[in-house]
Amino acid sequence: DAGVIQSPRHEVTEMGQEVTLRCKPISGHDYLFWYRQTMMRGLELLIYFNNNVPIDDSGMPEDRFSAKMPNASFSTLKIQPSEPRDSAVYFCASSFLQTGEQYFGPGTRLTVT
Amino acid sequence: DAKTTQPTSMDCAEGRAANLPCNHSTISGNEYVYWYRQIHSQGPQYIIHGLKNNETNEMASLIITEDRKSSTLILPHATLRDTAVYYCIVRAPQSNFNKFYFGSGTKLNVKP
User: Fold this and answer.
1) How close, in Å, is residue B17 to chain A by CA atoms?
2) pLDDT tens-digit series, residues B46-89
């Protein structure tokens, strides 16, 4: 299995632009997670899905952030408009059932100038 | 979910066993202990988990005290590639994943 796939690996954009991060979970996994990691705040859960349905988005910082999972093999995290404080590494992870064994992708390093 | 306490950093000589402690004194009876690690610039990696019995897999061993208030992750023969931040997390099955709190972890430095 290829593991969790994320794209792009690096994204540099200007303030105010729309950013879309993509994730392909491991086949057969029914949970998908989006995390953000910064030096100041560590690893934070933004939102997670079960069977393509958002379960908890309480970690989404504000309305500028949105996430979708149109099918079992694809999810997006969108930031519109982006701001410099959104600069971080964004990780996608997936897991099977309700276990705590999450498998993380390599992350997308986002820089907003 | 219970919070955990870990040392900020630890050193270990290459080839020796690395013993990483975790305190979870308020753990509930149905909460599991999970260990993850994050090598620099990579996503976190699941290592092992357990409820009350000791567990071992190809990566590590997990020793949980009888009262379950603390645990130790053991890397039997540490290599330079084991240099990473190690996270100890406790979580009950079926609980909301927003309580799957990674915290600051322990930075393990494996030295030649």
Assistant:
1) 24
2) 999 999 989 999 999 999 999 999 999 999 999 999 999 999 99
- Test A105 with B43 for CB contact under 8 angstroms: yes
- Taking only the tens place, the pLDDT of each residue in A1-51 is 689 999 999 999 999 999 999 999 999 999 999 999 999 999 999 999 999
Is there a contact between B89 and A106 if contact means CB atoms under 8 Å apart?
no
Residue-level length of chain B: 112
Residues 45-104 of A with CB under 8 A from B: 45, 48, 55-56, 58-59, 91, 93, 98-104
For chain B, give the secondary structure using H, E and C: CCCCECCCEEEEECCCCEEEEEECCCCCCCCEEEEEEECCCCCCEEEEEECCCCEECCCCEEEECCCCCEEEEEECCCCHHHCEEEEEEEECCCCCHHHCCCCCCEEEEEEC
Least CB–CB distance from B97: residue in A48, A101, A104 = A48
Residue keyed to tokens 């907003």: A112
**Chain-chain contact of A43 with B104 (C-beta, under 8 angstroms):** no
Contacts of B45 in chain A (CB under 8 A): 104
Please give the residue that has the higher pLDDT: either A64 or A62: A64
